[in-house]
Design goal:
By secondary structure, the protein is of the alpha+beta class. It has a four-stranded antiparallel β-sheet with strand order 4-5-6-7. A three-stranded antiparallel β-sheet has the order 1-2-3, covered by helices on one side. Helix 3 packs parallel to helix 5. The chain starts with a strand and ends with a strand.
């Protein structure tokens, strides 16, 4: 982050070979991009629309950050793309435990599902409680834990258009 001469801010986000430049003054952004282009080979892809698996859409109210495309991919990957929708990510009064009498599920598949859900939390904070709940059972997941994780997917299926609005 860098303060500009006019009291604004320039922010550079770098991940491997992806670079995102945002700021409060468009002229300062263009000046910085010009300086970087003179030193490095780079392409300007224009306005932000997709960065690190997260989508951004400009609306009249501001910028909406969402993961609709990624969620659809996750639903398909875990064969939940045709599932029925639910209104909440977690059942009310849900109590999960390590019941030794309950059937175990594929731990690798469960961990992959929870990993995907954790990534979705970046743009969907309302699922964080449920994801945290199922994350407790990564070492020895049972059928009830998988059912709780799949319920979160069913919720996401019904709320694909949700995201976070950053107002102007």
């Amino acid at each position: 982050m860098k303060a500009t001469k006019d009291g604004g801010v320039l922010l550079i986000c770098l991940y491997v070979d992806d670079l995102l430049i945002i700021g409060s003054n468009p002229a300062e952004i263009e000046k910085l991009k010009g300086n970087l282009k003179s030193e490095f080979e780079m392409s300007d892809l224009g306005l932000l629309s997709y960065f690190l698996g997260i989508e951004f859409a400009e609306t009249k109210d501001g910028i909406v950050m969402h993961q609709k495309k990624y969620i659809k991919e996750v639903l398909k990957r875990f064969s939940m793309d045709q599932c029925h929708k639910v209104d909440t990510p977690v059942e009310g009064n849900l109590k999960l435990d390590t019941d030794d009498h309950e059937a175990s599920v594929d731990a690798t598949l469960f961990r992959q599902l929870v990993e995907c859900l954790r990534f979705v939390c970046h743009s969907r904070p309302e699922i964080s409680y449920g994801v945290g709940l199922v994350s407790r059972f990564m070492s020895n997941p049972k059928q009830s834990h998988l059912a709780a994780a799949k319920r979160i997917l069913r919720y996401l299926k019904g709320t694909l258009d949700y995201g976070i609005l950053f107002p102007h």
